[in-house]
């Protein structure tokens, strides 16, 4: 038997309702905030992520699904959405519209990581990006969108952590301090971090190795070394979050795993998950548009991992009522004529917004009624040649057992099962 590749998941029908709920909530909140959906390719030129995400990050160094296509080009399955959106923003001249440009997306992402609960090789993100606005009001708006999205999903026990990781001006001095600190531990750092020590010491803080992360705990914090501009921006963001009543904790240890961030970074962490507890992460990136060939424009956004949200929701809904997928009506049939008659009627009922079903597997009448029970159908009706001639049949309320005679028109059936007809 061929099984699914490691780190991938099938979403089975019972679960896909949860996915639809999350996706619908994401779209609803985006609409309220003026974010418009963008759809982009699943794969991109590898260089986009090398330059965009940064070649000293774990994502680029260890986790990308990269291959050569038949034309000899290096192609990579998207490990995240931001670099792609920046590419698209530049390529489609979206900067020419009145700014800011507010975009949202729901995408599959691919990272060759060690799979565990909440960490997959193919996973899905809902994300937003806002281009062309550098005010602290923008940061607060973006963070509040994530906050509202999680609230609307009725997820509890999620905490917002924020930090500032400065700009190239303050990072320059800070990197020197960081380098001096890590130099003392040169002998203990992992080989990847030794390379990072030269190229990008801040990446060491994000290393997953036990020894490196222990050493990193006492490293100097960026938030204590912000320049005046970054400091007042961060103060501005906090003030605006306070103003909206969005609660947060300042966590100087957040550096994020991707290189493009400047100034504000943030993460929403759930207490319902184990090691992989970050359900949503994001931040500002001031240099990325220029780095990828565009005219300078600020960006800020976040992405939430849908599989992690599903894990939290499932834990919190363990005793909650089941999602309603039961048909409104089951039509049991006696004979081929009835089957055909029922199919047409069901087609018309579905057009009117009624979820109606019939047997498709040649069951006996008794077995059809058992099947209707299994589906938890709300109403049932049995039709045979007599009912077709009379143009009426007995409708049964499957919960109360009550019966009533109805004429076999879609309009009358709609009325009798208390379902308002669409149009
Ligand atoms: P990220 O922190 O790498 O940020 O990923 C965002 C979210 O995707 C994480 O918080 C997590 O919920 C989910 N996630 C990441 N890796 C996995 C995995 N292997 N399995 C399951 N879920 C995962 C970004 O991707 C940035 N592009 C976010 C952003 C947008 N920053 C600015 N704009």
Q: Summed up, what is this model?
A:
With 423 residues, the chain is α+β, with helices and mostly antiparallel strands. It has 15 helices and 16 strands. Strand 12, helix 12 (336-351) and strand 13 (356-358) form a beta-alpha-beta unit.
Give the topology, please.
Layout: H1 13-33, E1 36-37, E2 43-45, H2 46-52, H3 58-63, E3 66-68, E4 74-77, H4 82-91, E5 101-110, E6 122-131, H5 136-152, E7 158-164, H6 168-183, H7 191-199, H8 210-216, H9 228-244, E8 249-250, E9 262-270, E10 278-285, H10 288-291, E11 299-305, H11 306-316, E12 329-333, H12 336-351, E13 356-358, H13 365-374, E14 379-383, H14 385-390, E15 392-397, E16 403-407, H15 410-416
Parallel strand pairs: 1-5, 7-8, 12-13, 12-14
Antiparallel strand pairs: 2-4, 3-4, 5-6, 6-11, 7-9, 9-10, 10-11, 14-15, 15-16
Helix pairs in contact: 1-5, 5-9, 12-15
The chain binds histidyl-adenosine monophosphate (HAM).
Residues 80-82, 111, 113, 118-120, 123, 125, 127, 129, 257-258, 278-283, 301-305, 307-308 line the site of histidyl-adenosine monophosphate.
State the helical fraction.
25-40%
How many DSSP H or I helices?
Answer: 15
State the shape: elongated
Alpha-beta classification? alpha+beta
